[in-house]
Amino acid sequence: MMRMCKKMILVLAAALLLSTPCQAAQTILIKAAHGLTEFSGLHQGFVKFKEVLEATSNGEFAVELYPNQQLGGDRELTEAAQLGNLAVAATTSAPLAGFEKDFFIFDVPFMFANRTEAFAFMDGEPGQFLFKKLEKINLVGLGFWENGFRNLTNSRKAVRTVEDVRGIKLRTMENPIHLALWKTLGANPAPMAFGELFTALQQKHMDGQENPFGQIYDNKFYEVQPFITRSHHVYTPFPIIINNEFWHGLSPAHKEIVQSSMKDATAYQRKLAEELDDKAAANLRRAGREIIELTTEQLDAFRKGASPVAQAIKERVSPEAFKLYSDYVNRK
Ligand code: KDG
To answer: Domain 27-331, what fold?
Structure first.
């Protein structure tokens, strides 16, 4: 009798287990935020990241995107990622240097002649060193995307020479090296968050600003900035950062899927950003704006005028970071 009961219980238990759908693995939600428009290469990079990650994880991950400063500007997004109120953020390297000083090495004027040099620096030892430094401020670096080569715009005059810059009230990012650069060149610079920039230009509180062509076009700066100079004075990346606890809470398998999706999105975003940069330049011309191309002599004069700033970087960064920078600059 006892044997029969036990057998019945086992059969019942098996039936129950098989009929109960196994607990679906909890979907891991990644909220990602940035400060640019949906038309930007930055946002399209996140769309690709979302697509690849959700597909390759068979829905174990879900990514929600928050563009257009919905969750704040660079400083707020970085703080939110540090505190864990946001999983992933994209901020430009320049404001991030306010959190980790060694990112100042990206702000040295005229450091990269082209994207190949910039990508080699970001993907090589310097980039990995900088990502390592993020760990002490509760962040992990997932990848470097392109913000781009920055160009000068203003509403006062055509800028072709360093003398032309004199006295221009210029908005810079919240970064002392950028301030020092334009002060050294004779402008009258002041830091301002990106979200306040268009109004400041429109109301003439600022005469000028500097950004890649994509931002100049997408954010309609060109409407209030008749003069555009292709200065390429700095190349800024978008370090893609994730909250440390969030990252280390993932399984090794999930980390691998996120890293592989980020790798695909990085390659896609960098290629698209270059295409969009050229497209934005064409759109600016179509909108009736001349893009002033500097001659070699004019560019050399800007490089010479900016050179004291490069020396100032040594006081701002760690000896290890400065060595990485000087090894790069003195490379053969
Ligand atoms: O949030 C947008 C910013 O990350 C980016 O546009 C930074 O280039 C920048 C600027 O000028 O503030």
So the answer is: D-Maltodextrin-Binding Protein; domain 2 (3.40.190)
